[in-house]
TrEMBL record:
Its EC number is 1.14.12.19. One of its GO terms (molecular function) is 3-phenylpropionate dioxygenase activity. This is Bifunctional 3-phenylpropionate/cinnamic acid dioxygenase ferredoxin subunit. InterPro entries: Rieske_2Fe-2S, Rieske_2Fe-2S_sf. CDD domains: Rieske_RO_ferredoxin. It comes from the Bacteria. Residues 2-99 form the Rieske domain. Keywords: 2Fe-2S, Dioxygenase, Iron, Iron-sulfur, Metal-binding, Oxidoreductase. It is an enzyme of class 1 (oxidoreductase). Gene3D superfamilies: Rieske [2Fe-2S] iron-sulphur domain (2.102.10.10). NCBIfam families: PRK09965.1. The keyword Ribonucleoprotein does not apply.
Length: 114
């Protein structure tokens, strides 16, 4: 598990971006409706940071083209996004939030993000 931040540093409706290393995609950690969620911090439609999006309920809206993603599953619920984003395990213990990155999937074709 990788430490993200102190629990008190992630407010309700907030997000924090973590970068692990050059080989691992950045991860966005969200707090919404009292729960914690973690997704790859890259919209599957174009290269936009989901941690800079708007959180409402169990969804985050991409700040670039308004695609919506379910924080629980990573599934998009409207266009222009068609592909889900990867989810990660996130826990809270002893006043700290931690994330366990999911295994990487094979690289997608570039035209899959169109």
């Amino acid at each position: 598990m990788i430490p993200v931040c102190r629990t008190e540093d992630l407010p309700e409706g907030g997000a924090v971006r973590i970068e692990i290393d050059a080989a691992t995609p950045a991860i966005a950690v969200f707090r919404s409706e009292g729960a914690l969620y973690a997704l790859d911090d890259r919209c599957s439609h174009q290269d936009a940071s989901l941690s800079e999006g708007w959180v409402e309920g169990c969804q985050v809206e991409c700040p670039l083209h308004a695609a919506l993603f379910d924080l629980r599953t990573g599934m998009p619920s409207c266009l222009p996004a068609r592909r889900p984003v990867r989810t990660h395990e996130v826990t809270e213990a002893d006043g700290m939030i931690h994330v366990r990155p999911a295994a990487r999937e094979p690289a997608a074709r570039e035209d899959a993000y169109a």
